[in-house]
Please model this.
Amino acid sequence: MSLKSWLQRRRRSDEPVSSVPAAPTEQDILASLNRVNAMLSEGNAPPVVTSRVIRIARTINDTLPRLRHLGLGSMESYSVVATATDYLPEAVGGYLRLPREWADTRPIDGYKTSLMVLIDQLELLGATMDQIFDAANRADAQALLAHGMFLESKFGHSGGTDLTLGSPHD
Model:
């Protein structure tokens, strides 16, 4: 082995190896939700499933612009991304891979059919996304309340300025 080939091999081994995938972008998240929607259409999902998935997707869409209020590395932000890119597609896909008649009529968990199990999972995801959306909005709501208290102290009745409008000749 020549010195030159040894140096080239050494240089390649010193290059950093990126083993952590990049975080999904907003476009990645929306694309994943679109794939779930396509799965529902292609798999002829029942309306009870479709309506719940649409509700979850709408909440995720409404939450995405507000994720920065939760903190990019927060558990809530992670939950939104994971729901859109993993939890929701996996739940829906698992159900849709089953024969429809079997999935909707045969118990798999005590008395629950696959359809009932999926609905339970979708209800849990929906309630969780609602809670996260509320948390994302709470910061702005608190700022609005604080501003209202400021305005009340500045211009309120307790000694504030009379701002009533009357005729200029009063």
The mean pLDDT is 85.
